[in-house]
Amino acid sequence: MDVLILGLLILVAVAGVILAAMQLPGTWLILAAAVGYDWHCDWQPIGWKWLVALAVVAGVAELLDSLASMIAARRAGASRRAMVGSLIGGFLGMVMLSIPVPIIGTIVGGLLGCFLGALVGELTVRDDLKSGAKVGLFAALGRVAGMIAKTAAAMMIAGVAVSLAIGAMV
Prior knowledge:
Blueprint: H1 2-21, H2 26-40, H3 48-75, H4 80-98, H5 104-125, H6 129-169
Helix pairs in contact: 1-2, 1-6, 2-3, 2-6, 3-4, 3-6, 4-5, 4-6, 5-6
């Protein structure tokens, strides 16, 4: 029975990494599976200290994923409107393109939305298309960096949880 539960933890961890790469809450899914596994095993294999540490990593990854486009846009000299526009545009783009194109639409929509949101936000402050395009590009690149960071965090959370679970069985 424990091997079956471990197999389920591994499956959910893999699914969580895939979901995180698609900009969905995969880190939280992996963490929930780790908590469920640890609860099933009387809180022995992983332990509360690891679970808290993994929750902190998940929280930081989500925060970084959300704010990376704003931070990168700011590095390009973006106005406050452009930074907020990149955040709102990224979210709206993900939602709008997720429905017609389920898997790739979330990623493409987020990138396109960040770019357009930052561009429009910058153009409302400065009437300079070149500057606006630069800010939009940096916002989109920041979004890519956030996606990479979130996916890496999901891989780390999954690796730690599964390794600790397997180590306790040996």
